[in-house]
Design brief:
Structural class: alpha+beta
Mean pLDDT: 93
Radius of gyration: 12 Å
Helix content: 40-55%
Low-confidence stretches: none
Order of helices and strands: HEHHEE
Number of strands: 3
Largest sheet: 3 strands, antiparallel
Distance between the termini: 13 Å
Strand content: 5-15%
Strand order of the largest sheet: 1-3-2
Length: 82
């Protein structure tokens, strides 16, 4: 977390982060992320991703408006960069 503080994450936030970190540096498509975290029936629910990525950025990024770790590739997906 920020400044070494422990940040409490909800289970779904952890799951989203875990998929991104496991694929660190690689683009994870919206469809893949939705499939892995929520299941195949949610593959079009991109609003879920926007919501959860916003929450993760608020908790983990030094400046959530200018993320350096949790990056959006508009229309494609997300990338975690250490």
């Amino acid at each position: 977390g920020r400044n070494g503080a422990v940040v409490p994450l909800k289970p779904t936030e952890w799951h989203v982060l875990e998929v991104l970190v496991r694929n660190a540096g690689k683009l994870v498509s919206q469809k893949q992320l939705l499939h892995e975290v929520w299941g195949p029936q949610y593959e079009t629910e991109t609003n879920y991703l926007r919501l959860y990525l916003a929450q993760l950025r608020r908790k983990l990024e030094p400046d959530p408006r200018q993320p350096v770790h949790l990056l959006t590739e508009a229309g494609f997906g997300y990338r975690f960069v250490q």
